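stuck on this:

***
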Amino acid sequence: MNRNLSMLSATFREMGRRLGPAFSLDLHALALFRIALGSVLLIDLLIRLSDFPAHYSEVGVMPLSEAAAFSSAVPLLPMHLVHHGNVWQAGMFGLGLLFSIGVIAGFFTRGCLLGLWLVLGAIHARNPLVLYGADTLLLCLLFWSFFLPLGARWGLDAARYGWQGLSAVNPVGSAAYVCQIAVVYFFSFLSKTGESWRNGEAVGLVLQLDQYTSRLGAQVLSYPGLLEWLTWFTLGIELIAPLLLLVPKMKVRIFGVLMLGVMQIGFAVLMELGLFPFVSLIALIPFLRVQREANLKTQGRFESRRLVLWREGLALVCLGIMLLWNIGVSRVEFQRTRLKSILPGPLVGVVERLRLDQSWSMFSPDPPVDDGWLVFEGTLSSGQQVDLRSPQNGLSWEKPENVSSSFLGDRWKAYLLNLVQRGLSWRSMAEFLVAEWDESHSTEQKIAALRITYMLSLIHISEPT
């Protein structure tokens, strides 16, 4: 056994010698990443809690008995299934908040990262219809962070375990993280195969989607030349920047980070995509060089060699699975369900429980051409008609001035658009709206009837010349 461990250790050391320059990460940058990641997860959980009765309680829009039908994956530890009561479900959020604080403080960092990944996976499974791209990316960041020494600087673990002698990161863990971020953008590029991306119209089509466009983004529509340039700019960055992240030279890597950072800032300014641009910016922090250090040893004194080797081995296996999965998804036109139907069930189960069943294909192969807004037409017992989501403004069928804001939050937007785009039942949503309204109004003002209408609006597509 000791001989096998020695051989495995020698193998990883050789990998570190060969791959280290390409995948080296600065420990101070990792500490900054840890604080930013823990903070955004803390904010995310608090935002979710503000809609807890609607999204996670038994009287809300997603009873526990229905949640499994909409989930694309089963979490490794399905804590949400232990009990349907609100106290238990709220307890998961409490654990998540504690783990987030632990990550920020760098206190039992790996344990808190693992706990947060498990808790967040269960929360995601509790109501899959409120999820969007930022949630997939957050789970990926948490997963690969487990293999990195995020607590080696600027945290309580650094003082407790004497990690100040560290300056380098184990090669497999850092390689896995670097490859994951490169995969996000490179496969996003590969997914953009539609005509609108080839002829330069894609960004213009995206910014016509009122559900996602900001006020500034709507103004940019007046500049068709700029829109075409932004389309090529987006494609160029998603192709070139991931390759630059793999270059050993720090200046080249930083240039790739800057390209991706500028693109994500553009997304945040021109569109309303919730946490996605901010999570994407946080994911780039480990590539920075915060403070130069000499290259010393790569593991804390408190960790046994066997534990480190097991963790590095697991990271290597998961890295292989992640790469092969993304290649497979690209071969079936980024349809995860189709790939799952081809692969053996046990293999799919492993990929799902590790939450590596990812697909990076936003606005692909072409941006959608259908847009719209919702009208919640309630008829009161008195015969008066009101808009249940905006009663103070009266019932109106006109397009809201800001369609994105009319969805009342990114989680609500994700949920409502899932109902529309997937043709799902509106019964739970209608029952929740009626119950919420009746609880705060008198008998004469109670809801007698409710009609939910999606006002479809097709975006303009220029005719080919």
Remarks:
- The longest strand covers residues 447-458.
- The chain has a mean pLDDT of 88.
- The radius of gyration is 24 Å.
- The beta strands are 370-380, 385-387, 447-458.
